[in-house]
Amino acid sequence: MTMYAQVYSQFREAQERTAEGRAAALYSSLISDLSQLNFADADDRRAFPPTLHSILARHGLFGLTTPGEHGGLALPLQEAINLISATASFDVSAASTLVIHNFLALPCIQAAPHIPEQKHIIWGATRGDLCAFALTEPGAGSAPRHIEASALMRGDKVRISGRKIWIGLADWARWIVCFARASGPDAKGRLVGVLVDRQAPGLKVTHEHRTLGLRGIIQNTLEFHDVEVPRSYVLSRDQDGWGAAASSMNRGRVGVAAMGLGALERAIQVAASYASHRRLGKLHMIENSYIKQLFGQMVLRREVVKAMLAASCRLVSAQGAPNVHLASATKVLSSEWCGLVADQCVQLLGGRGYDEGAPLAKIYRDARILRIFEGPTEALLSHLGRCLLSKATRDEIANLFRSVGAASVHAAAIDELSGLNETDGAVLIYAGWLTTLGLAKAVMSAGCFSASDCAAAAADLVSSELATLRTRSPTRQSVEVRDRASRTLTTFLEDAACSIRSPVLTDDYLRLVQYV
């Protein structure tokens, strides 16, 4: 090692120790402040506790990974997601605010140095000027091909027209990163991201969505009526807005996984506390062998999610972004297992778990959206399955498995799936689960992503999940079995035709159709 390399290595180690010490102090201080807030009442009011925004701003949490010269904390990704998980253990809505602002919207602005007064905008954002991310549309969801909002480019101006739904922070935001289809004489017709001032003429915040969970954070419909902004506020000069959106959503998946971890940990904590006091006959619930085993599996699931997040933070691209395939797998596993654990914990508490006065009911509701945010489970699994099977992307998946020392796992999956129809939805979902659980097993077996004593047991749990998955392999399903499902649904719809024509269901349908 050269003298320069030795000095540089020592400098980096000192930097990391300083960052770790600073993050630990920040973590402790944040926990202390969040402990004083009443998030249950905030959920009932559908509004944050009045002091939450100032607490997050005071701690610098609106600039988690933003460079210090722009007013941010410049935290490593691992430290940032630790703070997001900690916040989610108190309230998933509050953590969602941090993910939308820090991982979705703000990076798009940071990647566009040509924006007038960019440094001033980012500085304000790190101090609490919230930023929203407007991608979702009624007829498109988050699918870029179907986005209809238009950005008419003429001269040095851009006019935005269209409608966005389910936009978190919309009515509280200072800036909105909006994605639309470019049009005009010199436009390429591609997706573009445009930075829009919340107060811009023609921009209206209309419907407030009454969501099942995340009741503390506001989510609105946005109406753009010829909203005019300078062309310099187009975030991607090459009109590759989807590249910016995809990069942000990839970071967002890691953020959602961190939210799931925090909620999962709180659910276990609450249920274990109850089980330690509640008696079943002569024993406390926690001493029951079945319940012991159940809690043991919950903790192992938590260990797997922690290790997957740690791996996502370490395995980053040359641009510093998490690996897209590992981030998707981590988000799938965290959100699915968070929902499972929350459900099990509600069941353990019985009627008390179902009571809104207990924190588990809130966790249960909030956890449900995590399987949808930043890509529904099925969409991500289909994408992972397609990448595993496609010749164009197979090497990317192979390299990822190789990076965690699991090339043999990848080879076995390819061998198992050889000859199957790559366009079959069931095959793609199955292949996605093989990829997700295969990566989880590899991460747990690697030993470098988890310092837990139960890492081996967690790897065994994943192996068990893989074995269960293989019993549902599409290779074992005959054409007759697959056709039976279609016939069953057809029969049901015919039998239920009278009920579906009832006034109540018709009214429900008419309310739903505006989103389809």
Quick structural overview:
The chain is built from 19 helices and nine strands. The chain has 516 residues and is an alpha+beta fold.
Class per helix and strand makeup:
alpha+beta
Secondary structure: helix percent = 55-70%
Radius of gyration based on Cα positions: 24 Å
CATH fold name of the largest domain, please? Butyryl-CoA Dehydrogenase, subunit A, domain 3
Strand content: 5-15%
CATH architecture of the largest domain, please? Up-down Bundle
Give the count of helical stretches.
19
Can you lay out the helices and strands and say which pair or pack?
Blueprint: H1 3-34, H2 39-45, H3 52-58, H4 77-90, H5 92-110, H6 118-126, E1 131-134, E2 150-154, E3 157-168, E4 175-183, E5 191-197, E6 203-208, E7 219-230, H7 241-277, E8 279-280, E9 283-284, H8 289-314, H9 324-349, H10 351-354, H11 359-368, H12 377-389, H13 394-403, H14 407-417, H15 425-446, H16 455-470, H17 479-495, H18 497-500, H19 503-512
Parallel strand pairs: 1-4, 2-4
Antiparallel strand pairs: 2-3, 3-7, 4-5, 6-7, 8-9
